[in-house]
């Protein structure tokens, strides 16, 4: 047995009584129809690997890589198995082994370098990338590329992803952003940061959100202000580290966490608000991430206690000042990390139901993953699309004209799904913030 | 396994439905009980013809075949003890027909039990067998184990709802038993022989199931007892006074405490036992019966009786019972779930015997279960990593079975024999009856390829071994 194998979360696997209750909840089990693509199977494999019965890379890596990390299984499990821990522990052990045995596929290797070493630790670079995409979109190059069909020939299905991207901001937009936005509206006196503000919040901009979904961030800040918050955007904040943690790069994730804790502590805000389900799930697990670093554990716990998803804050401080009637039939796809990890389920639905003029229909199986899951849709393209196509069947059946999500990955995925199912003529996908912003007539 | 055999299996099915890598095989090496046994190959048939071809091949080459559904067995039924082929039925999962006029459903074996429940209830019908694993278990697995559930008391178990089968024999022939009519007395009745045969006599490829109209109303109560033995008497009391509840379940003090520690449901943690009881049927009858049941419970010294006012309260009452299994695994991770069953009148005595066993072996033993039909679930909570404790558990398990049999009961009320209870078979049946069963198996499966090592003890095997 290799030394790495002993690092697997072995004890945790004993909590599993193999009852199978988690199987119907697992999206990969549903589409692949085999036990190795189920939570129970993956846990059994982690156990077998820890016992040295199977090889980390040859046998464990495949089934673990197929996992979306959506953690629907954790919610379904009656025995309280902490699948998230088992999954991340396995990812990290596999990653270390891959590195030491030089066994990464070229795509994964390239992506890893780009993502973990080149891009995400440096928000500036990500914005620069956003800038490039902006240039590409604005210069007319996009039209040309589409016309001659280049995007279809891009490797790794990038073409499909490209089509789902929103228009990104010009690089100059960041310069214009204010660091502090004051609360709007009638004065509610409170002893808080400002005489008229209901709360002071620090906004977590996220890296993908802040480059590719810059507009959504801008609107989030405006919405928070409209709901009565003073909003600060800590300048030294960085990526949440979720992609790193889920890919087994725990050390880097810890570094990023520390930088964020420092940045947000300095604001003195009441709440730390984020608008991306996946990032939020990472932020509220900083206490687990840093649990064995004494000098950080307490600070991380404080950080977690103050972190909130934007839906929660808006629902809590609302009602929002709606000004427009919107003619949509709306349905909502949960972000797995928002629902299964952060347990935010009712707030976005309440907010959507409160928008004047719209009709809300619940999406059957909204709690099931859409197959996006970080870079999963890139590295496990086939499975991701199978999960998505299943999902689109129920989305189409709702006859909604608008699919709302609360996480950038899910949003891109739903846009791709709409195109794949050929529904773009009457159906669109938006982030919940964009929709609320529109309904509040904030322009 | 020889590459030619794998090739043949692929030729019968297709490349996607034959798995032979170590990782895939590892995930079909377990069920919800104990022990792991690696199959050599995993195959997912889609039609009876494919199953027949696979069994012909296996019979020719003398390769063991172990059928498998959802893998929720608690007795080791789907474990591929002798290696060979794991025949996984989960992709044969079409609900072929629901015939409202004749009150029957025709299903493939891989249909998930809860899916069938949902589909028939949508049209006002009812398929009563309801194992607690219904969200995961398959109809094929239910039939093979003759599964029961809380509804067993009033409505009977799986075998009472099967009128016809399509079965592939170990030699690869497709046969039909029973038929589409509720009455059928032609020849030997092979249907009930297959039901409960735990995949040792044939592979079920289709089932014709009997449905009943859905009862229009239901009502539940919770009765609290200061003495476990009293609760046992109350259970008999309710039944002898002419009430047949749809469900009647009990939980002892250890189960109540475990649930309240895990997720508080407002149950009295100082009670020695509680009974949960539900009646169903015509609304007027339901009203009258629940009141009478409450009276009877008080007569048998229930210190408190709560009748649920509406559906929400009813669900609230049942929540505690649903949480028992998960709650007790928080105490220690390994759960040995037994289902020894005694005649109803012997329930108080069985409680007494279980108490003695708990003291004698110093084990963590909790008791809950379908008390209405005498089917108790003594659950031992242990830690598989503690070898010394597990040996005490092995002794205790043997003694629980002995107690049940001595009181005129049985080793298994619903989970089947599998590998876990095979060593005790002779204790209940005696050598002659066991030998007759062996000869039946021999007649069906001369080469002993279908699910070997199940039900029948191996020579010299007299106790369960839980330590690997
Ligand atoms: C949490 C939990 C609660 C449970 N509650 C109950 C309960 O209330 N009542 C109850 O009775 N049981 C209960 N069980 C036990 C188990 O769920 C049942 O025995 C169930 O019927 C098994 O179905 P399965 O599809 O999982 O079959 P498996 O476990 O896969 O197999 C069970 C047996 O059936 C055979 N088999 C499977 N499919 C076929 C087929 N098509 N043809 C021939 N043989 C086949 C297998 O070889 C094996 O011997 C519970 C289990 C768990 C884990
Ligand atoms: S995290 Fe999601 S995909 Fe992974 S095992 Fe759990 S339910 Fe399945
Ligand atoms: S539901 Fe929980 S205990 Fe049951 S098999 Fe899944 S992870 Fe294991």
Word description of this protein:
The complex is a heterodimer of chains A (443) and B (468). With 443 residues, chain A is α/β, with parallel strands linked by helices. Chain A has 26 helices and nine strands. In chain A, 53% of the residues lie in helices and 7% in strands. In chain A, the strands form two sheets. Chain A has a five-stranded mixed β-sheet. The radius of gyration of chain A is 22 Å and the shape is globular. The model of chain A is unreliable at 186-194 (pLDDT under 50). Chain B is an alpha+beta fold. Helices cover 36% and strands 20% of the residues of chain B. Chain B has 14 helices and 18 strands. The longest helix of chain B has 20 residues, at 387-406. Chain B starts with a helix and ends in a 24-residue tail after the last helix. Chains A and B meet through helix 3 and helix 4 of A and helix 2 and helix 11 of B. Bound molecules: flavin-adenine dinucleotide and iron/sulfur cluster (SF4) (2 copies). The site of one iron/sulfur cluster has 15 residues of chain A, from helix 2, helix 3 and helix 5.
Please tag this protein with its features.
heterodimer, A: 443 residues, alpha/beta, five-stranded mixed sheet, four-stranded parallel sheet, 26 helices, 53% helix, globular, B: 468 residues, alpha+beta, seven-stranded antiparallel sheet, five-stranded antiparallel sheet, 14 helices, 18 strands, binds flavin-adenine dinucleotide, binds iron/sulfur cluster
Oligomeric status: heterodimer
Low-confidence parts of chain A lasting 5 or more residues at pLDDT below 50?
Answer: 186-194
3D shape of chain B:
globular
Count of β-strands of chain B: 18
Strand order of the largest sheet of chain A: 1-3-2-4-5
